[in-house]
Amino acid sequence: MLQGALFGAIGAVIGIFIVLIVKNQKVTSLKRNIAHLGAEYSGFFYYASPNRYKKALKVYDSSGILYLIGNVLYYKTGTAAAPIAFNLAECTLQMEPDWRKLKWFSITTPAGIKYYFDSYKMGAFSNNSEETLRAYNVFQSKIPAYTQRPPGPPPPSPPPIN
């Protein structure tokens, strides 16, 4: 009985390490893939569709790099995948209510399609969504002043980086 529990625990630890290694390789290859573009900001994010956000057990639909060039935001899920582009002069950016103790923001296209994003690091006792807040503030600063959209609720300020 004790042997089964030990083998199960070892299997779980190995599984977690494999998932972390695969995620790290994906992030590294995506960042290398966009390095020549001169992005002002890039970060690893999770995307949830309107069908998934607050309606499903699984938290996100995909993961990838969200990067900013000028006032256009791109989301890319793979090195061969074409990115989704969001022109911040035409889209609406807003903070969303916390879901599953994570901070989320959404981007709504002029066609009314909503995309939900979160970037979190899993901790031993809590999840850290500070990068989501930092990214939101960077993206918000890139929205041209001449656009007349109602702003979303302001996000809380992220803690300072030591």
List the topology elements.
Blueprint: H1 2-34, E1 41-48, E2 62-69, E3 72-76, E4 84-87, E5 92-99, E6 102-108, E7 114-118, E8 121-122, E9 127-128, H2 130-141
CATH architecture: Roll
What is the SS-derived class?
alpha+beta
Low-pLDDT sequence parts: none
Strand tally is: 9
Average pLDDT reading? 77
Please bin the fraction of helical residues.
Answer: 25-40%
The neighbouring-strand order within the major sheet is: 4-3-2-1-7-6-5
CATH class: Mainly Beta
Give an overview of the whole structure.
With 162 residues, this protein is α+β, with helices and mostly antiparallel strands. It has a single domain, classed as PH-domain like (Roll). Helices cover 28% and strands 30% of the residues. It is built from two helices and nine strands; from the N terminus they run H-E-E-E-E-E-E-E-E-E-H. The chain has a seven-stranded antiparallel sheet, with helices on both faces. The protein starts with a helix and ends in a 21-residue tail after the last helix. The mean pLDDT is 77.
